[in-house]
Amino acid sequence: SEPETKSSKSKSKKKENACPASMFAAGGDKDKDKGKDKNKDKKKKTGKFFFLSHIQEERPPSPDIEFDSLEEFVLQPAQQGVTVKCKMTRDKRGMDKGLYPTYYLHLDNEKKVFLLAGRKRKKSTTSNYLISIDPTDLSRGGENFIGKLRSNMMGTKFTVFDNALHPDRALPDMSNARQELAAIIYETNVLGIKGPRRLTVIIPGMGKDSERVPIRPRSDNNGLLMKFQNRKMDNLIELHNKTPTWNDDTASHVLNFNGRVTQASIKNFQIIHSKDEAYIVMQFGRVADDAFTLDYSYPMCAVQAFAIALSSFDGKITCE
C-alpha cells in the first residue's frame, strides 16, 4: 500500500460512502467490448517475483455490525455505503502436516465475531473447498454447510455455490436448486512473465430491491463460467483485480490498501468494477504469516468474498 495525501483521503471517503447500485444492476451487457484493448500496449514490468509493496500503518477496524441469523448474514450483500472489514486466519495444524489447512473468517473488530470456516476436501479429483458457519463442523452433510468452492482441473477457474440441492435432485422448476454465487478466472501466466496475477470475477447482478439475481443452471454448460466464455452476460456483473502500478524506487508493484495490508505478497489484490476503479468491491492482503485482512462492499456477500480469497491459496502452476 501507499500513503495517501490529504486530497486523496477526502476523495476516498466520498467514494466509500457512495451508492454505486447502478453499476451492479441486472441487465444486458452493453459494455462487454468496452476497454477490451485498454491495456494492450502498456509496457509490462517483469521479473522472477512480483510483490505489492507496503508501509506500516494502523489497521482501521470494522464498523459494528449486528445480525440475528449468521446464515442469512453471510449470504446477504453488504449494505450500500458500508465496508465489512474482516480478518482471515490460516490454521496449518491437524490434517496431513498442513497440506489441508483450515481457514477462518471473523469480523475485524474488538468482538471478533466468527463468520465462516473453510477447508479443502481431501478426497476430490479437483480442488474443492467446503464452507461452513460452524468452525468445528466442516462436513459436507452437516447442517452448518453453507457453500463450496470448486475448481477446474488446472486450478485456474473456480465456481462458488450455495448450500441448496444439486440440479439432479432439485424440483423440476429448479426453485430449490443450488445457486452459483460467483465464478473466478485466473489468467494463465507461466513463470510470471506477464506481471502480477490477473483475475476476473463474475457475480450475479442485483435486482431492484438490492437482492441478488438467482443463477440456477441445470448443468455446467449453462453456468457462470460458460456464460462468461460465450459472453452471455445478461444479469451478470464482470469485475477485475485492480492493476498495480510499478514503483521504480522499490522495484515492485504497488497498491494502496489504506493501512489494511501490512506485508507484501503475490496474493494481495483489490477487486473493482471498470466503471469506477476507486470503488473497491473487495480487497484481500497479508498482515502476518497466517493472517490476512479481507474487506468487502456492496454487492458482495461474505461467502462470495471468502471463496474468492480461498481460491487465491490454491496452487496454480500456470498462473505464477
TrEMBL record:
<feature type="domain" description="Tubby C-terminal">
    <location>
        <begin position="75"/>
        <end position="314"/>
    </location>
</feature>
<dbReference type="InterPro" id="IPR000007">
    <property type="entry name" value="Tubby_C"/>
</dbReference>
<dbReference type="InterPro" id="IPR025659">
    <property type="entry name" value="Tubby-like_C"/>
</dbReference>
<dbReference type="GO" id="GO:0061512">
    <property type="term" value="P:protein localization to cilium"/>
</dbReference>
<protein>
    <submittedName>
        <fullName>TUB like protein 1b</fullName>
    </submittedName>
</protein>
<dbReference type="GO" id="GO:0051015">
    <property type="term" value="F:actin filament binding"/>
</dbReference>
<feature type="region of interest" description="Disordered">
    <location>
        <begin position="1"/>
        <end position="42"/>
    </location>
</feature>
<comment type="similarity">
    <text>Belongs to the TUB family.</text>
</comment>
<dbReference type="GO" id="GO:0005929">
    <property type="term" value="C:cilium"/>
</dbReference>
<feature type="compositionally biased region" description="Basic and acidic residues">
    <location>
        <begin position="28"/>
        <end position="40"/>
    </location>
</feature>
<dbReference type="GO" id="GO:0005737">
    <property type="term" value="C:cytoplasm"/>
</dbReference>
<keyword id="KW-0963">Cytoplasm</keyword>
<dbReference type="Pfam" id="PF01167">
    <property type="entry name" value="Tub"/>
</dbReference>
